[in-house]
Design goal:
Penicillin binding protein transpeptidase fold; 9 helices; about 210 residues; single chain; mainly alpha
Length: about 210
């Protein structure tokens, strides 16, 4: 009987299923138990959706319109931002899979689609914000709010909410400088200008997502 010269590797489908199972366990550990209560969004959550995923309640984990826009921009040699949804960002953060590759993006999309069958959109949004990276040593929206604004998320006003949402795009460095502050100011001003046009979209949640 010939001796094996390389480590045993399970067939690809089995390896993929095991990987999915393990990553879903990681995601499940990041789900906030009380995330469905209350069922109305607060000002920070609204600002984050305006900034990161304006069609959040209109897609099932994958925003095909954004993907088409990015592909079209690529063909035209123009940059049109990313196509990652909140669901995909949550998957990436919970699993720690940050590899910059098409394989990672496709796998992220697959998991983002799968979790739609287990968790509500509110659970996904709030669980993501509870672990999201806002800057050096700042994980979770409440820690970011206390550190950057000096108040918990319950005491944040509309301007503060725009600043916190901007920190997802421009995480706070260990030693904030004028360049970072200018980026935050520009981004938060942009979100404040958009807020009146989008706030009604998130004032009443879809019937199927409410508690």
């Amino acid at each position: 009987m010939p001796r094996r010269t390389s480590p045993f590797r399970a067939p690809f489908p089995r390896r993929l299923l095991v990987r999915i199972h393990l990553d879903l366990l990681k995601i499940d550990r990041c789900i906030t138990p009380w995330a469905d209560f209350p069922d109305q969004l607060d000002i920070i959550e609204v600002m984050v959706l305006i900034s990161e995923d304006r069609r959040y309640f209109r897609h099932n984990g994958i925003d095909w319109k954004s993907i088409a826009r990015v592909l079209l921009g690529f063909l035209r040699l123009r940059i049109h931002g990313g196509a990652s949804t909140i669901d995909m960002q949550f998957v990436r953060t919970a699993t720690g899979f940050y590899e910059k590759s098409v394989r990672r993006k496709l796998y992220e999309m697959l998991l983002a689609r799968i979790i739609q069958y287990k968790y509500s959109k509110i659970q996904i949004l709030r669980s993501y914000l509870s672990i999201a990276y806002f800057g050096s040593g700042l994980y979770g929206v409440n820690k970011a709010s206390v550190n950057a604004l000096g108040v918990s998320t319950y005491g944040v006003d509309i301007v503060g909410a725009a600043i916190i949402a901007s920190m997802l795009v421009y995480p706070r460095p260990l030693a904030p400088d004028d360049k970072w502050l200018a980026k935050i100011s520009r981004r938060s001003g942009y979100l404040l200008a958009l807020y009146p046009s989008f706030k009604q979209r998130f004032e009443k949640l879809p019937r199927w997502d409410a508690v």
